[in-house]
């Protein structure tokens, strides 16, 4: 009985492979192979495949990874490529491709999968920092989005010994424009972010951090806008807040000494005081000469983030004020002044023209008036405790910077 059933089944298969009219063999439609995913973005992907069939069309079925075949989204294609759009960011999808020949259909291909890229950075001041997509994963990890560039400065601004993470996010498809050794021209919808934090113990970073604030500059319609996000105690979120707040911070430095800081988060007015020049908001940190260190600027160039700069060798480098082996005392002190003081003490700055000091590094010494105000500079940068309205800088720090003052003091004494 079993033998008879097998013979009958064989006969049915054999008959099915011939046309009823002329008994010609019908070639089975082959399954598409070598499915590839190209040009994947946060919302789209280009799919290509290989196929040996003649005059075939195709059905591509896709859905969230693990979907049941037949319950996904299907689209038709006449070529061995198709573009999927409207996808969810940072999401894994499964894909099947099936060929349709003139006389029959192939079996669906084996499942293949792809994952879309992370969501784009949002150049808006939304309520919660997490909604801007500047970071991926847990917010407290400060893992930068793939659309950002993390940078450092040869001589950074002093802010009560806080560590800082600096990010630039350009809109997709845009570039910066080189102007000179200073700030480049940034395209609209650029986001510049700086996050301030402390290690609980400088001797062992694995003991965790306390993140205080994330300051943002966003360029909108040709003008920079300021915003500040304050982190909660749980380190799970930061919220947009224009008011000033004092945050007590305790940390152990690299020599084992316990430090207590009353860290002051600036108000929107405070931010504008330092970031204004001729009444316009401007960035302070990401000048090309400040970023030209450790091949960092060349990396930006190699990533095609500049429209008109191909070689960083023509850009000057701001000295590292702590490097007493490479730079002179004057170079170190002038670099410190440039980063910590020049945004206010320069033409167009908040202290101009009340003060005729010009602390920009590129200003000739004879035009800085440093020698004229030498005694005042020493007195106003060494005040302990700080005297509101007198101690320099006026805002941005709650303590005197002993190491920085030592360089300033030695330089002034050398004049």
From TrEMBL:
<keyword id="KW-0732">Signal</keyword>
<protein>
    <submittedName>
        <fullName>Fibronectin type III domain-containing protein</fullName>
    </submittedName>
</protein>
<dbReference type="Pfam" id="PF00041">
    <property type="entry name" value="fn3"/>
</dbReference>
<feature type="signal peptide">
    <location>
        <begin position="1"/>
        <end position="21"/>
    </location>
</feature>
<feature type="domain" description="Fibronectin type-III">
    <location>
        <begin position="31"/>
        <end position="119"/>
    </location>
</feature>
<dbReference type="InterPro" id="IPR036116">
    <property type="entry name" value="FN3_sf"/>
</dbReference>
<dbReference type="InterPro" id="IPR013783">
    <property type="entry name" value="Ig-like_fold"/>
</dbReference>
<dbReference type="InterPro" id="IPR003961">
    <property type="entry name" value="FN3_dom"/>
</dbReference>
